Amino acid sequence: MYFIEILKAIIFGIVEGITEWLPISSTGHLILLDEFVKLDASEEFKEMFFVVIQLGAILAVVASFWKKLFPFSVERCGAIHIRKDIISLWGKILVACVPAAIIGLLFDDRIDALFYNPQTVAFTLILYGVLFIIIENRQKNREFRIRDVGGIDYKTALLIGVFQMLALIPGTSRSGATIVGALLIGVSRVAAAEFTFLLAVPVMFGASFLKMVKLGFPAAGREVAVLLVGTAVAFFVSLLAIRFLMSYIQKRSFKVFGWYRIILGTIVTLYFLI
């Protein structure tokens, strides 16, 4: 029985690691997976489990983009050098965090009560899938105003943060919402994806911390092992998913993810109707 729970944790970790960074909604997939692969644990533990395995995914971003996130370095003479461009980037990231942080703090419980269900996930999967296809068709021959993360100014960062608020509704996808918003305001695919990854660091750490404070640590004994396994798997799978997406979008559009969302959302809708 214990082995089965470990196996379930591995499955959840794989799904989290893949879907957290592809614009197809990790929360939506975890909600749907939970319909079929039930952890033998309390609702409090499962809620915390879904939060903590996200920390595994976010640590993969820190590992992948460490040089772009850490502004301090030690020179040969022993002096500490501070990179002003990275400090400025952190300022833009924090500005982009503000809109979702305010709405999340004020309405987190209400949003969960209203929208944390498979029906909402199915609807938002289809909606944003259609938006991805429409926006990519519009962007086909467009010259992007901002081609790299360094070109994102504070105004653009704030606008991306406004789009990130949409991801508070399950099934939207945090990366999907910010990438769609960034594309609409003239940010290239590569810059949009990279800024989305960097933005995830404070957002997900903050959200996870608040959830942990709210829930405490409702895990003991074997549940701790299940938690650690899921988190570790999410970390290693995320490393691969991030590398894949950054390579994929160098030459390809996000339309394939749009079609995937539409197909999955349709299947989910039909499943619950039947």
UniProtKB/TrEMBL annotation:
The keyword Cell wall biogenesis/degradation applies. Belongs to the UppP family. Its EC number is 3.6.1.27. One of its GO terms (molecular function) is undecaprenyl-diphosphatase activity. Its main location: membrane. It comes from Dehalobacterium formicoaceticum. It comes from the Bacteria. It is a multi-pass membrane protein. This is Undecaprenyl-diphosphatase. The gene is uppP.
